[in-house]
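Title: Comparing notes on inverse folding

I've been comparing how different people in this forum approach sequence design from structure. To keep things fair, I'm posting one structure and asking everyone to reply with a full sequence. Here's the target:
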């Protein structure tokens, strides 16, 4: 068994991955591979909690997500990459945990409250949507993860998992460690319109976008809303393009652009063009890896199946312990 601490995290396959996903999670995952025993999974059952009316679309995004992960630098030799639905033990543990989780714990979940209000084009008044933190807890404690990499806003998600694990241990014996939130740093990167980058807003730059698509999208990015003409002085502090410069352009470039913008020495069109060129250049290694894996569907399928088999072997051991603890045998 590895002496490294184990971490686990997942993503819902609800669409192609974009730069927000890369800087919000993937880049952190890639950086953790040498330090931790990593388990990363595609949460296709979780996607059903909100997209249950069109499950076919979920299935279609699974292979594309794995390709994006591999393109970003996740290595199946270092991390276990798997698909949730290929490890049915998750559903069994979810069932056991749902028997002991108080409903008020789920109703007070801030994400549940927010999304019920915000997502008004779908019927989310289902048990699956209310109970998704229980499935999430099953995903995490199944592998006895020491930590879950999250941003500060996601810490409550890990806390409810700790509460559920604690309650199980109290009732049936000390089976599960209580996972810690592993806080990760994320780069500030918004969508083309300065809102959160999201496929729902049609404001995303996807990892699969080719150079022409990237250049076209950058050309319509919102800049300083107060700057109407090239002769108007701009404010890079509130300009989304400048935030991209700080990520994708070298320091010398963006330090020179800032005073030029403030003094109206460079227009938004020229500024965007420079940034687009640097973004495209930075994405070249990712695009090369993506083309490689895209051309090898059998290799991608093998990576999915091998990772899922490895994950399931761990899950089977855990479920043997769980059934024994609650005195239910095969």
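Reply #1:
Here's my take.
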């Amino acid at each position: 068994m590895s002496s490294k601490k184990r971490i686990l995290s997942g993503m819902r396959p609800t669409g192609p991955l974009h730069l927000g996903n890369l800087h919000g999670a993937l880049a952190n995952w890639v950086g953790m591979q040498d330090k931790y025993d990593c388990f990363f999974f595609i949460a296709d059952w979780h996607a059903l909690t909100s997209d249950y009316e069109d499950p076919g679309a979920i299935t279609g995004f699974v292979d594309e997500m794995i390709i994006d992960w591999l393109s970003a630098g996740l290595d199946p030799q270092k991390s276990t990459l798997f698909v949730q639905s290929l490890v049915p033990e998750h559903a069994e543990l979810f069932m056991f945990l749902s028997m002991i989780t108080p409903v008020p714990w789920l109703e007070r979940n801030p994400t549940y409250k927010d999304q019920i209000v915000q997502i008004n084009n779908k019927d989310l008044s289902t048990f699956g949507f209310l109970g998704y933190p229980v499935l999430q807890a099953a995903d995490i404690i199944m592998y006895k993860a020491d930590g879950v990499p999250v941003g500060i806003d996601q810490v409550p998600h890990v806390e409810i998992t700790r509460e559920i694990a604690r309650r199980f241990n109290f009732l049936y014996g000390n089976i599960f460690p209580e996972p810690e939130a592993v806080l990760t740093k994320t780069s500030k990167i918004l969508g083309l319109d300065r809102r959160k980058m999201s496929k729902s807003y049609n404001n995303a730059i996807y990892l699969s976008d080719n150079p022409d698509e990237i250049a076209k999208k950058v050309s319509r990015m919102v800049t300083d809303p107060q700057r109407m003409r090239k002769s108007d002085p701009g404010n890079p502090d509130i300009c989304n393009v400048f935030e991209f410069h700080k990520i994708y352009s070298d320091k010398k470039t963006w330090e020179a652009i800032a005073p030029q913008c403030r003094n109206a020495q460079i227009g938004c069109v020229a500024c965007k063009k420079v940034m687009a060129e640097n973004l495209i250049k930075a994405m070249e290694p990712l695009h090369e890896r993506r083309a490689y894996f895209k051309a090898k569907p059998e290799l991608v399928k093998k990576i999915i199946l091998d990772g899922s088999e490895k994950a399931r072997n761990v899950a089977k051991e855990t479920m043997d312990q769980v059934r024994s603890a609650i005195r239910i045998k095969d």
